[in-house]
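Progress note, sequence design subtask.
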């Protein structure tokens, strides 16, 4: 196995461990693995131009990931030509969007259904630490959500109902000390407690 392939395999394993830690859905794991596998074998310094030329010729390709076949489109690039946004289609109205940093590491990922966000959505800092997680139903935020510092410590624990703040939101400083609690009822602020 080439040195670059070993590096990418280790990155895949790290990603799987991170994803498992935060209980991310199987579809997300599969799609992120497929993105990482796509880049396997490329040397970032020597083959980036070749990768860009190859990717330029790819419009829609079928990606088989652990028995699930999705059609992948590269839909947006950075100004230097490197990939920025991929769509993984089950059909035209049901697709996973994956935005990546210039380093090809995941930035934002989640499903669209009929043009609206649907299901679990996640974002990451470029260092691979989870930035935020939340859920959408028919394009609106719904249920519990968390935001993290780049160290991995929780920054905000929050909840939404019909797209509006709901329940008790808890805020923390970088050392995981609780600093503020705010109570909401369907978007209406009820109470606030500082610590």
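Output:
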């Amino acid at each position: 196995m080439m040195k670059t392939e070993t590096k990418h395999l280790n990155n895949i394993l790290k990603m799987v461990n991170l994803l498992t830690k935060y209980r991310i859905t199987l579809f997300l794991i599969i799609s992120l693995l497929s993105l990482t596998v796509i880049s396997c074998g490329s040397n970032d310094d020597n083959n980036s131009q070749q990768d860009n030329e190859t990717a330029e010729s790819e419009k829609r390709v079928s990606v088989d990931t652990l028995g699930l076949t999705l059609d992948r489109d590269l839909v947006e690039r950075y100004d230097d030509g490197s990939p920025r946004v991929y769509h993984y289609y089950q059909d035209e109205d049901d697709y996973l969007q994956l935005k990546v940093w210039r380093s090809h590491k995941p930035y934002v990922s989640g499903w669209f259904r009929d043009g609206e966000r649907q299901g679990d959505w996640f974002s990451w800092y470029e260092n691979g630490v989870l930035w935020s997680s939340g859920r959408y139903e028919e394009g609106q935020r719904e249920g519990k959500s968390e935001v993290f510092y780049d160290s991995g410590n929780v920054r905000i624990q929050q909840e939404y109902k019909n797209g509006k703040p709901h329940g008790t939101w808890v805020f923390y400083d970088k050392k995981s000390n609780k600093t503020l609690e705010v109570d909401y009822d369907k978007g209406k602020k009820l109470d606030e407690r500082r610590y």
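The longest helix spans residues 3-21. Work on this subtask will continue into the next period as scheduled.
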